[in-house]
Amino acid sequence: MLRYIKHNMSEISGIEIYPIIALLIFVIFFVVMLWRMYKMTKAETDMYSQLPLLEDDEVIDTNDTKE
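The structure assignment produced for this chain is given below.
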């Protein structure tokens, strides 16, 4: 099965760019997530840490966070 896919994919011109694009999207996504986590305030961290413990009807006050 893999041999069949590899054979058919090798005949398509320009297909070798797609794994590179996928890797770049993957790396950029995680760099942005790390940057966002680094810039997060203590109030945001506390708010997100309490989310799994809250009931469905409880409301989180997001006005306490400072940017």
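Interim note for the steering committee: The CA atoms of residues 16 and 27 lie 18 Å apart. The chain has a mean pLDDT of 83.
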